[in-house]
Structure formats: structure tokens, C-alpha cells
Amino acid sequence: MKKPISPAVLLLGAAAAAMAVLPAYAAPEAAASPTQSPAAGDAAAAEWRALEQQAKPQQPPAEIQQKGMESPEGQKWVKEEVERLKGVGEKAREFYSRHPDDPNAKQARLLERMVLEIRARFGDAGAKADLAKREEELLQLPSITKQERFQIRAQQVLRNAKNAGDLETGARELLAEFPGEPQVYQLLLIAAMQSNDPERTRAMVEDIRKSNAPEQVKAQAEGMMKTLDAVGKPFELKFTALDGREVDVQKMKGKVVLIDFWAMWCQPCVAEIPKIREAYKELNGKGFEIVGINLDSDKEPLEKFLKENGMTWPQYFDGKRFETEPARRFGISMIPTMWLVDKKGILRVVNARSDLKGSVEKLLAE
């Protein structure tokens, strides 16, 4: 469950976290407290408006985006952005310390928590310790709402889960703590996707299908059920690849085949490419092949990307993203999704991302 996170993924997480927190803040017009003098209220409101502006995530310059966030320039930019947000977190703490009764004091605490979360993802030991303390303080606030409490607890569950079993346990504890909270099922879905135990996965998926989970989560669960139903059966996939090659997985018997559902716009997918390429280079001569199912919409950039990244294996492409035929047929709703077909043409592994090389070597040895 715990995997190194690339700077690009962290950047997206930082931006998403900031954008998720900011709308929850009280509007500046409502910032002045009736119990404060007008001058004090105006000063605090102005300070808060300035802090809100500083908290908004920055976008990397176009030239850095072109080079990629994994480039030295991209990594440098991300580190600088995290340092900038660290300063925002410190100012947030100063704000609620100076203005404990201000209507925005709680939002300042939430902003500080968000920044500490980002720093903790980068392995900042001090931030991890501070994060735990600040969260406990937040959970004790009389003004904390049920939804805010849930968001904090959900983040704690995600952060503390070392594997799919931990995440399932945490999700079910949240269901007991927040009865009827539909968003808990998103965590249960993630646990199901990470699980290597088909029986546990099926049980989690069934629970989601019968629940009051959001429709999108239920749709993803339905897709997972299609995946589960495909395991242990011959994997049928035949197409003409982007480069004109004819591909028929059933004619690749005797080989172990990775079926990689991916896209260029998916940062976690891109982060997996070096690992996939390394496994292919090492094991291709022993009978390992790869078939890509690409979910992008533009052909030219894809062809350039494949060439630049040394991805020589065939790619399915029709420009329809998640509406592409294999994705619809196999219920793919999240990527990266990496499956392994054994030497008999049977779909055997649907979570190859967790240990690609080890899983391939095991199937090759059969």
C-alpha cells in the first residue's frame, strides 16, 4: 500500500488538497466577528484574505510542464512549491494563535493541517508528528462539523494503512463511527483494488454494490465485479495496434503477458513506465510480453511519447479514453490497471502493479 510517491503525483495531491480546503473557508465578507471591534475585525479579515490568496496552489511554468515533472527542473519546482506552502502553514498557525475567536480560526487550522499533510508525504518527520497533534486538536474543537471530522478521520485511515487489509479495517471502523456516510465506500473501493485476496475483494465489492455509496463508486464496483468474473478464464483480446501490428492475446500462449491500461494524462501511469520498461528489458527474453491499452484521445502526441520513452510493445488506441472497447468490456474505471495473463492464456493477476517483476517471474516459472 505504501509506495514512494513521485514529485509529480505529490504536486497534484498538493493542488487537490488546497483546492478542497479553500472552498470550506468562510467568505471574507463574513469574517468579522460581532464580538470584535470593527477595527480588529477588519484587520483579521484583511489578513485572512491575504492568506487565502497565498494558499492557492501555483501552476508550474509551461516549459517545466513540457520537460515533465520528473525532470530535475520539475522536481526543483515541486520542492520550492512545498517550501512555499510550508510558509503558508506557518502563517495559518500564527493567524489562529493571534485570533483564536475569529470565525476563520478553524479554517486556518484546517489549512495548516493540509500543509502538514503535504510535508508528511515528502517524509518530513517533524511534520508527521505535528500533523498528529494538530488533527487531535481539530477533532476536539466544539465547532468542528461532522463532515470536517470525517475528512480528518478518513485521511488518518489512508495515512496509517500499510496494506489493503489495514485499509479495509479502517474503512469499516469509519462506517461504525459515521453510520450512513456514503464517502466511506470510496476507501473500501480503494482497499478492494489493492487487495490480492479474491474472496476479500469480492466481499468488499458486494458490500459497496448493496450500499448507499455514490453512483460513481458503485459504477466502479460494478467494473471491479467484471474484473473478478474474468479472473481464471481465457483472456480474449484481438486488435490492430497503433503501429499496424496484429495482436491476439490467445495466440501468445507460452508467454506471460502484461495487459497495461494507461494514459499519458495519468501521472501514476507515467510514474510506472520506468518499472515496466525495466521488467520488459530483463524478462522479455524469458517469455514476457506487454500489450498496452491506451486511454488517451490524441494520436500524434501518443506516438511521440511512445518513441521518447522506449515503449516498443503494441498499443491499442482508438481515442475514446474510458469508452474504448476493452475498457468498457472489462469494466475499467480507474488507471493504472495492470493485469497478467499466464502462459496458458488465462487471466491470473489483476493487481500486477504491486509487484510486477515478482508476479511475472512467478508465472514464468510455472
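^ that was protein a. below is b, sequence first then the C-alpha cells
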Amino acid sequence: MKVGFVLRSMACGVLLLAVVSVTVGHAADSGEFKGSWIANGTRTPFPFGDGREVYTFRLAGHVSLETTLAKEKDYWSECVGLADSATGVIGRCVWRDLAGPEIYITLQGDKLQQGGLISGTIVGGSGALAGISGDLTFNWASVVALADADGTVTVTGQTKNLGGHFRLP
């Protein structure tokens, strides 16, 4: 943002014009956060040999925090991932605050089912959340997978012990 102003010296008849560049920034912010996440979506099986269950998943839902993360308590989440009974779960998530800025998170864990421990890394953000970093963990309190008549598996999950740390430069 640029601001211009004019100063006049009547005695000398001099006109001075100065243009000042002002940068609007956000103060550094850091802290801990905790809350819960409820997500719904689908999983699609991927044939990968006998005795090994592999599937992709897509989940979306509401992250409701008891304490703030970058001054917000509510985020809408969207995640995609891969689950493999032999190697665990990996995922990529976008948490979007209600005003639009996003937080990007990588997830990894042992399983996408009740009791599964998941850890994550905050790897960046957009807008006012650009440069955010941190970590988080949670357990799945419940995960329900139901197949419908056409074979689509719907997944609903709820977390417990969602919490972590963040730093916003």
C-alpha cells in the first residue's frame, strides 16, 4: 500500500512531495491448539495382492478447536490419502478458515480405524497464514465404514486428543 502526502513551505515557495511505502504485516504468532475433528467421505479399494488391504480415501469435515490456531477456532477440512494395511496411512489435508486462508498439513499414521494414532506436520499456508509451520497428533475415537449397494464405502470418523503446536512468522 502506498501513501502520499504533501508538505508546503510558504516562506520558500517550495513544494515537497513524499511517497512512503507501508507494508502491512501480521505479527508473529505461536502457541498450542487442541480440539476435535469430525470427517466424512469415501474410500476406494485398490487391489494390491492377497492379504494386503490398500485403499485411497477422501474425507471432508469440521475442525472445532477449543483453543485458537492462528486466531481461529473453526476450520473446514479436506483430505486425500492412501491406507495400506502393511505400511500405514499417509494423507494430505487443507484446513480452510471461514475467511478463506488455508493451512496445509501432511499426515501419517498406523491405520485409519478406531484407536489409530495419526501425526501430522503443518507445512505452510496461504494468505495471512503463509509461512505457518507446526505439528499435530490425534487418535481416531471412532471410524465407521459402510458399503452401499453399488459398492461405495462411506467413511465417518471422529478424533480424540487432537492437539499440536504452530508458529506463524
